[in-house]
Design goal:
Blueprint: H1 2-5, E1 7-10, E2 13-17, E3 22-24, E4 26-29, E5 39-46, E6 55-60, E7 77-79, E8 90-92, E9 101-109, E10 116-138, E11 148-157, E12 161-165, E13 171-172, E14 177-182, E15 185-191, E16 198-204, E17 207-213, H2 218-249, H3 256-264, H4 270-285, H5 290-301, H6 313-318
Parallel strand pairs: 2-10
Antiparallel strand pairs: 1-4, 3-8, 5-6, 5-9, 7-8, 9-10, 10-11, 11-15, 12-13, 12-16, 14-15, 16-17
Length: 319
């Protein structure tokens, strides 16, 4: 019989983390493998033995052609071996949780319905527990004593367990409602009031995760304080720079009387400072002619106002 003359080996179970590539091992031998010159057809089926093949390719056993339709880079499925050497392994790229399940490796010679062999293998995609959401939801009146519940949605494979912890880290058992949404996802909830603080913890043999509600404000407070400090430092630096520039731009008379008069006149209006700068500028421009300078000084003296100190540039130059 065919089963006595053929042999096929498959990997019983292949376990792969989500997001990585998986190889479902499959190989075969038959008595006339060295002399067979016909066509070898590889088929992979999922879930059921009679399902339509989701992958199929063929190659002549005595040819040297490339496996163009069997090994295409970038596609979800491709062969990881060469059927002419008895390798029928299937490569599945970047597996998802939905790829979990039963697969069947099938080989046919010359497309013969009776000249074929098929075996089963399992793909087990693992995923560490993770919390997808943690939020307050409104429930319909009459469904519970509380119309507001804190809901935690988690995912993982194997399916994790959910534990609720109170503010004192004590496990909660009363009024906890948990239901499976899919083979890899579940939802759990507890009654919630505004002042409550709860922690949703998910665990499996691959690890665990937990979220706290309401979330901690430590990060927000830290960022706020750092922002205020940066604002104060930048404001102080700007004020220092402006004051330094103002001192450099103002003509000075190295006289203690000047400092005292300046302190006494600090309460005068801002316009006084502008008038003082104009007088200095005029004196500098007319300093080349002594007669004009004397006339100008005489005229400006009549315009002096109390509380404004005027520096005599000529007297300073003599010193």
């Amino acid at each position: 019989s065919l089963s006595d003359s053929w042999d096929m080996k498959v990997s019983p179970v292949v376990s792969v983390p989500r997001g990585e590539d998986a190889v479902l091992g499959c190989s075969f031998t038959h008595p006339k493998q060295q002399d067979f010159s016909g066509k070898i057809t590889v088929k992979w089926l999922a879930r059921e033995t009679s399902a339509f093949p989701f992958f199929r390719c063929s190659v002549q056993n005595n040819s040297m052609e490339r496996l163009s339709d069997c090994s295409v880079s970038g596609l979800k499925y491709s062969l990881a071996g060469d059927p002419r050497w008895g390798e029928l392994s299937l490569l599945i790229r970047r597996v998802h949780l939905t790829d979990n399940g039963t697969y069947f490796c099938r080989v046919e010679l010359d497309n013969g319905w009776w000249n074929n062999l098929q075996k089963e293998t399992q793909l087990y995609v693992t995923a560490k527990p993770q919390i997808l959401s943690l939020s307050v939801v409104e429930t319909s009146p009459g469904s519970d004593s509380s119309t507001r519940r804190l809901q935690c949605e988690a995912e993982g494979h194997p399916l994790p367990t959910i534990t609720w912890l109170s503010a004192s880290n004590s496990p909660m058992g009363d009024q906890v409602q948990t239901s499976n949404v899919s083979p890899y996802r579940l939802i759990s909830s507890v009654p919630y009031l505004e002042e409550d603080v709860f922690t949703c913890r998910v665990e499996s043999r691959l690890g665990g995760a937990e979220w706290r509600y309401p979330p901690s404000n430590t990060l927000i407070i830290t960022l706020t304080v750092c922002g205020l400090i940066a604002l104060l430092l930048s404001t102080g630096f700007i004020c220092y720079t402006r004051n330094k520039a103002r001192v450099k731009s103002s003509p000075g008379c190295e006289n203690t009387d000047t400092e005292e008069n300046h302190q006494q006149g600090s309460d005068s209006p801002a316009e006084g400072d502008v008038e003082l700068q104009l007088v200095y500028s005029a004196v500098t421009v007319t300093s080349s002619a002594s007669s004009q300078h004397a006339a100008f000084r005489s005229s400006t003296r009549h315009q002096e106002e109390p509380g404004v100190f005027y520096c005599d540039r000529s007297a300073a130059s003599k010193v």
